Amino acid sequence: MATLNKVEQAKAGFCGLDLAPRLSELSAAGWESLDEATLTIHLKWLGIFFRPVTPGRFMLRLRLPNGVIHADQLDVLAEAVDRCGSHGSADITTRQNIQLRGLLLEDMPPLMAALERVGLTSRQSGHDNPRNVTGNPLAGIDPEEFIDTRPLVDRIQAAVLGPDGPRNLPRKFNVAVGGAPDSFLLHNDLAFLPAFHDGTLGFTVMVGGFFSAQRNELAIPLGLWLQADQLPAFTLAVLRHYERQGDRSNRNKTRLMYLIDALGLDCYRAEVVESYGAVAGADAAALVPHDGSHLVCRAPRDICGVHAQKQPGLHWVGLHVPMGRLHADGMGDLARLARTYGSGGLRLSESQNALIADVPGDQLEALLAEPLLQQFRVDPGALAAEAVSCTGNRYCSFALIPTKSTAQAVVEELERRLEVPHGVRTHWTGCPNACGQPYMGSIGLMGAKARKDGEMVEAVKVFLGGSMAADPRLAELHDKGIPLSELPEALEQILVERFGARPRALPA
Ligand code: SF4
């Protein structure tokens, strides 16, 4: 048997969920008294992240299935951030999720109780766990959707967090459900894409997508088609198989695609079908072979702006949240606007933006006049709307550059200089771990170091050509080190030469 890597050794025989009843005791003892494995590994089973950049100030990552959140829930999060004073903030993540920053360990027990009261959880949101399950951000209100992904995503989360769910995966695991023509999801370990079989709408299964410092892959067809009802048990079957069979010796070669490589796709499929039989029982409908064709055919929509919902007379109002960064007052205002002008329902997108749902036509004018919409605009520029960024060096010790602030400043500068005729997705990430998904961007930017005037300076690697459209592909390396001081000029040239941007006319 292969030797367990160090993390596996630390996880063996102890599940971080067992810390839940001891959280008050641990926080009373003080974070400095905790051993390294508790602090940096096991607490993540509760969604609690020790941040070496801000020792003593923790991050809490929630689970928001399908990116759905209600104003009452957002209020609870806003209060938690507000109590952290100048340390507090929150980020909308690329998994339609929210993570809170600046919390003390002693904040956690009352916050966990408050989350539970409003139907939220942070359980198993970090480390080697199945991460927030994503879906169509417009599910249920989308005139273009094939199927409402919300109930499916909710059922998958319930199965994954339930008593039969995995507790000790070899690595993190991303699951997503597509429901619309623009549900690009091939960056997930397991993605269900809407597809027909014999005239019935169901899902084809895609497996093995992931980004890392070592390897980047788009998911490939597994060759199976499922009815909607089969998704939760099938997800559980895949996770249990991965928990049993995934490699635990080398963490750099442990994501699902490595297991598929090791077994071969046919053998992997056969083993997953067997695992499904064990999970779903003898009465479950058979899994159907499928060629992998599906209904997803174009890149995700920009959700910003005012759009008619499928419900007559109602609209969603998509707001651009710059780099996904929120503060307590903005969160509170967002909740108030959702309640005042809509049903209280809000959604988060993978592009780190937010939308207010269910706004009647006669409320639009008043909503659009709210001061918050000067900050979170409905009409951001073509670059700002879909600029995605990881955390960067304010909170992440791996970051080689201040990702969010650099992205914000460069995008603003480029929009001052250029007219860009259509949306250009820029994905900014602080290091090769690729949390900002640089390979998915039309332009991907990754923190790096480069030599300038004889000195090492902050820089980015630039990747070009990523596409989430009908013919998806990963962006490829274009330049391995542009100093940040030269970045606006370099990107200006790329935007003019490759994306049809034109210099703005100077004011007379
Ligand atoms: Fe941190 Fe790197 Fe991930 Fe950015 S990409 S959040 S810098 S680990």
Small-molecule binders: iron/sulfur cluster
**Helical amount among residues, as a percent range?**
25-40%
Q: What structural category characterises the helix and strand content?
A: alpha+beta
User: What's the alpha carbon Rg, rounded to whole Å?
Assistant: 22 Å
What is the level-2 CATH architecture name of one domain? 2-Layer Sandwich
CATH topology of one domain: Sulfite Reductase Hemoprotein, domain 1
Share in β-strands: 15-25%
Average pLDDT metric: 96
CATH superfamily of one domain: Sulfite Reductase Hemoprotein, domain 1
Low-confidence stretches: none
**Multimeric organization:** single chain
Q: In CATH's first tier, which class of one domain applies?
A: Alpha Beta
In DSSP terms, counting alpha (H) and pi (I) runs of 4 or more, how many helices? 14
Strand order of the largest sheet: 1-2-5-4-15
| Biggest pleated sheet | 5 strands, antiparallel
State the shape. Answer: globular
Task: State the end-to-end distance.
Answer: 74 Å
